[in-house]
């Protein structure tokens, strides 16, 4: 984030060494960060001058930001239908640095339900919502976001090493879903799917409720969850084929 914020109207381009001096970082660290950003399209390198400027991914993010207010409005009827069909709370989350943030939610009816708070921020390594969001990112990028091991433990089921997280992410790659059995709150169970647009993960869609009830319903909940993800993807980008499968 510091690297990206260094670009401005006054300084639209940076060399590796001068950016390192500006940020107080070693040249090798800056080179690695810039290479990672370049691979994702956030910066572009001039092959002749070897200087960097902002890339097309920044413009894409700006467009997403413009639509972010609409995201919750578009998602809410999908979440309401999902919560009604399953009897569990339906939640939409987006990445927020090394965490994830709830942008829309519809709580299940009944006394024994999970109440989601829009705007609430949760640690990215704890819970299936985070696993569904970060599974597609390169490990080194996630390390930069999450920080060094051991990661904060909230319950006995919280993954605290990257080896554990890689196993969680592989589950997403293999099955298209992530399951959490009390990773942040021992009393809460959940299942999540990544929301894809043009092949890229832009959010995660989650069903969440009391662990004693949800844990035994994972397969039952997965089908309507995937259907809701496909519905929401089609509403956000008609004709896009990137819905969960």
From TrEMBL:
GO MF annotation, one: DNA binding
Pfam name, any one: HTH_IclR
Alphabetical list of SMART domains matching this protein: HTH_ICLR
Keywords for this protein: DNA-binding, Transcription, Transcription regulation
The protein, known as: IclR family transcriptional regulator
Keyword Transcription: yes
Transcription keyword on record: yes
GO process terms (BP): negative regulation of DNA-templated transcription
InterPro entries for the chain: GAF-like_dom_sf, HTH_MetabolicPath_Reg, Tscrpt_reg_IclR_C, Tscrpt_reg_IclR_N, WH-like_DNA-bd_sf, WH_DNA-bd_sf
Superkingdom: Bacteria
Transmembrane region(s): none
């Amino acid at each position: 984030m510091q690297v990206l914020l260094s670009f401005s109207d006054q300084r639209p381009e940076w060399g590796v060494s001068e950016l390192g001096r500006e940020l107080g970082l070693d040249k090798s660290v800056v080179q690695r960060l810039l290479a990672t950003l370049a691979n994702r399209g956030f910066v572009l390198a001039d092959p002749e001058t070897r200087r960097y400027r902002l890339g097309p991914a920044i413009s894409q993010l700006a467009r997403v930001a413009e639509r972010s207010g609409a995201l919750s409005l578009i998602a809410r009827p999908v979440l309401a239908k999902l919560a009604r069909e399953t009897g569990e709370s339906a939640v939409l989350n987006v990445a927020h640095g090394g965490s994830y943030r709830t942008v829309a939610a519809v709580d299940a009816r009944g006394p024994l339900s999970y109440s989601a708070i829009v705007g609430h921020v949760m640690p990215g390594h704890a819970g299936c919502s985070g696993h569904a969001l970060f599974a597609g990112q390169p490990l080194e990028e996630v390390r930069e976001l999450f920080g060094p091991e051991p990661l904060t433990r909230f319950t006995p089921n919280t993954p605290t090493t990257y080896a554990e997280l890689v196993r969680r992410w592989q589950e997403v790659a293999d099955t298209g879903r992530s399951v959490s059995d009390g990773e942040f709150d021992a009393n809460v169970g959940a299942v999540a799917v990544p929301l894809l647009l043009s092949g890229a993960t832009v959010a995660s869609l989650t069903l969440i409720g009391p662990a004693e009830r949800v844990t035994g319903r994972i397969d039952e909940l997965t089908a309507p969850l995937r259907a809701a993800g496909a519905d929401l993807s089609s509403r956000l980008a008609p004709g896009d084929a990137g819905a969960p499968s």
